[in-house]
Design goal:
Layout: H1 3-31, H2 38-64, H3 70-87, H4 89-101, H5 109-127, H6 129-132, E1 136-138, E2 144-146, H7 148-170, H8 177-199, H9 206-220, H10 237-249, E3 254-261, H11 264-271, H12 273-290, E4 296-300, E5 303-309, H13 313-326, E6 331-333, E7 336-338, E8 342-349, H14 356-364, E9 376-377, H15 382-400, E10 403-412, E11 418-429, E12 433-435, H16 437-447, H17 450-467, H18 469-472, E13 477-482, H19 484-487, H20 492-502, E14 510-515, H21 516-519, H22 523-535, E15 539-545, H23 552-557, E16 562-565, H24 567-575, H25 577-592, E17 596-599, H26 605-613, E18 618-619, E19 628-629, H27 630-636, H28 643-652
Parallel strand pairs: 8-9, 11-13, 13-14, 14-15, 15-16, 16-17, 17-18
Antiparallel strand pairs: 1-2, 3-5, 3-8, 4-5, 6-7, 10-11, 10-18, 10-19, 11-12
Helix pairs in contact: 1-2, 1-9, 2-3, 2-4, 2-9, 3-5, 4-7, 5-7, 7-8, 8-9, 11-12, 15-16, 17-20, 20-22, 24-25, 26-28
The structure holds ligand C2E and calcium ion (2 copies).
Length: 654
């Protein structure tokens, strides 16, 4: 190798490294398919720019040595090109920072023009250089010399680095800490490169440090693995939460569309988890045909959230309608096809959803409307307001002690003796009045205070038992409702035990009720909790039997002492022969499994006669009493059900 080639190689080593680095980053980015977002595209452009710039510099190094007169032209042209590319590098890098921070979207055209001004100026003086020599020129020995324009380019570069940094500080909270740290580090790296190259002209390191920074960006910022939900390919909830925070801190207007698939739980139960995953995936695939993938988030097991920047409400409305329409047709879930039902909601932030929590709240709140024929927006979203008000009432209730436990008696057949009671929670709110538990219990679950309420109910019940009245009344147990969410909390069983022992109450006095349909979600965990508490002496009832579509085998593998047949089953048994057959068979089946049977919702003598014929064990219902406050309940115990009832029961006995 000739010495001039060697020196050219030495001189351009950093440039060659830069080309190789950028090329690797480019290939990897393309292989990963990270091309959809504006940020991705700018990143690719940055790589291409650096690569071109470095490649030109390599050519300069080889030809500048002068292998003949024609080479000057080549060296001169490529140098010129490299500087054209170079002058646009930091403006691009700065803009990339703005994109990552999220506030690039709010720049008006004027703002953008202002931002681009130093860039336009420097590019202009570079382009005019062949005529003016403002950026560089060759002296009479053909030596390359920098002119003031070169320093103007560096000044612009510092401006863009500084702008990026200041912007980052301004929107510090809009960016995740990992991204923040990465950005600060890489801005610093680029700045060091620029500084070294200005100070020591011969160390051509700047493009190499830029490329290193780009590699870092690829690994830290462009990498979205932790943001993607593996099953559906959509962004996950974490990504949703971060992006919402970003949009809201940077004060962007954006459209929100919620797609809630209302029958995921039953699809899961009937067709199994792999089919239900496949259905969810096909919905995500469909959404990706309508929208760029970066707009779609998988917020929770049945809800997709779509975020679209900008104030185009009409487009969002059309999209929402189109999505809802699609649910009129079947979906593919692996080998099976089925209709899915969905409720679609739509709103605008900040108008409808001023905070991140509002959007997440919408994603998680049950949609009360049965009618799924129209997109819910504007006033239809008032159910969210009601839910928020209920949530406030819950917190108020805890502070102001406006919760109260009511008791509803349970009677044994055929003696008609009151043998137990069910504790039912009431909320008397000073603003909303009496809120029904069917409304506030799910809200308490969502708001994360169900445990606190559950503890309160058990404490009240224990205080009542410790007081001695229930024993005097001859009650064997008191039923306490449990939300499955509550049972799944770590340390749940231990806490229940702690509460009863604090009141010195025997656990055998407490009968926990768990709803059948809910019990279906996670048998193993539930089984462990039930076993643990049963060993401690508590008893268990399966509540609302006949309302879910539970897997019978699994549900009866749980060790319940009592099954409470839902009122719906009783009521339809009176209406027609199919209902009657269901009741008869349920009773027979449960008895064969050696569980006690309670029927809820007893309102008429006719029903009592029917149930006496079936010889169920216990009755509960408005016929005897509604749930009443504790003191009223105590007086209630002194009045026995009417005596003609006993005759009625004796007549009916099989
Ligand atoms: P549940 O456990 O099935 O409670 C029985 C519900 O049926 C009660 O409604 C009761 O008032 C009502 N009921 C009883 N007999 C009759 C009748 O003859 N006719 C009619 N129409 N209704 C009758 P409530 O008190 O409104 O409670 C609704 C649900 O809220 C409960 O259903 C239970 O799931 C939940 N809940 C109530 N208190 C608690 C609690 O402390 N913790 C938890 N986790 N859930 C609770
Ligand atoms: Ca119950
Ligand atoms: Ca029930």
């Amino acid at each position: 190798m000739s010495s001039s080639t060697m020196s050219a190689l030495h001189y351009s080593a950093f440039y060659i490294c830069c080309v190789l680095l950028c090329l690797s980053c480019l290939c990897y980015t393309l292989i990963q398919g990270r091309v959809a977002r504006r940020q991705n595209q700018l990143y690719i452009l940055l790589l291409l720019n650096m690569m071109s710039c470095a490649a030109c510099s390599v050519v300069v190094a080889f030809f500048e040595g002068g292998f003949g007169s024609g080479t000057h032209l080549i060296a001169d042209t490529t140098r010129f090109m490299s500087i054209v590319f170079h002058a646009s590098l930091t403006p691009m890098f700065g803009y990339y920072v703005l994109l990552v921070c999220g506030n690039a979207w709010q720049l008006s055209y004027r703002g953008l023009a202002l931002y681009a001004l130093p860039f336009i100026f420097t590019e202009l003086i570079v382009l005019m250089n062949p005529l003016t020599g403002w950026v560089y020129y060759y002296d009479n020995t053909f030596q390359y010399c920098r002119n003031w324009g070169a320093y103007a380019i560096y000044a612009a570069a510092f401006f863009y680095m500084l702008a990026g940094l200041l912007n980052l500080f301004r929107y510090w909270r809009a960016v995740t800490s990992a991204k923040r740290n990465a950005l600060v580090f890489f801005i610093a790296l680029v700045a060091v490169g620029i500084f070294v190259q200005i100070a020591w002209r011969d160390i051509q390191i700047e493009l190499f440090t830029d490329a290193l920074a780009a590699l870092g960006l690829m690994l830290s910022i462009e990498d979205e693995d932790d943001r993607i939900d593996m099953a559906t390919g959509a962004y996950n909830r974490r990504a949703l939460s971060f992006d919402l925070k970003n949009f809201i801190t940077t004060e962007q207007v954006f459209q929100v569309i919620g797609v809630r698939i209302t029958d995921t739980a039953s699809v899961h139960r009937v067709m199994g988890s792999s089919a239900s995953d496949a259905f969810l995936r096909s919905v995500a695939d469909y959404l990706r045909t309508l929208l760029p993938p970066y707009c779609i988030y998988y917020a929770n097991p049945s809800t997709y959230i779509i975020l679209i920047r900008g104030d185009d409400e009409n487009r969002a409305a059309e999209l929402a309608a189109e999505i809802l329409d699609r649910f009129g047709k079947k979906w593919k879930g692996g080998k099976v096809e089925s209709l899915l039902h969905a409720a679609v909601t739509r709103g605008v932030s900040p108008k409808d959803f001023p905070t991140r929590e509002d959007v997440l709240f919408m994603a998680d709140s049950p949609i009360p409307v049965k009618e799924e024929k129209k997109v819910l927006s504007g006033r239809d979203l008032s159910y969210l307001l009601r839910r928020l008000e209920v949530e406030r009432a819950l917190h108020r209730g805890l502070e102001e002690h406006s919760f109260e436990v009511y008791y509803q008696p349970v009677y044994e057949l055929p003696s008609l003796r009151m043998t137990s009671a069910e504790a039912l929670l009431r909320l008397h709110d000073r603003v909303l009045g009496n809120v029904p538990p069917a409304e506030f219990i799910p809200a308490a679950e969502q708001a994360g205070i169900i445990e606190e309420l559950g503890d309160f109910v058990l404490e009240e019940v224990c205080a009542f038992i410790a007081h001695g009245e229930p024993d005097k009344m001859g009650l064997n147990t008191i039923g306490v409702n449990l939300s499955v969410l509550q049972c799944m909390q770590p340390g749940f069983a231990a806490r229940m035990k702690e509460i009863v022992s604090r009141f010195d109450v025997s656990p055998s006095k407490i009968n926990f009720e768990i709803t059948e349909s809910v019990a279906a979600n996670d048998y193993n965990a539930l089984d462990t909790v039930i076993r643990d508490l049963k060993e401690g002496g508590f008893t268990f009832a399966m509540d609302d039997y006949g309302t879910g579509y539970s897997n019978m085998q699994s549900i009866f593998s749980l060790d319940f002492d009592l099954v409470k047949i839902d009122k719906g089953i009783l009521w339809s048994a009176e209406k027609n022969s199919i209902g009657r057959a269901i009741l008869d068979n349920s009773v027979r089946m449960i008895r064969e499994m050696n569980r006690k049977i309670l029927v809820e919702g007893v309102e008429t003598e006719e029903q009592i006669r029917l149930l006496a014929r079936l010889s169920v064990d216990y009755l509960q219902g408005f016929y005897f009493s509604k749930p009443v406050p504790r003191d009223e309940f105590v007086t209630l115990a002194r009045t026995k059900p009417e005596s003609n009832l006993s005759i009625l029961i004796q007549e009916a006995a099989p």
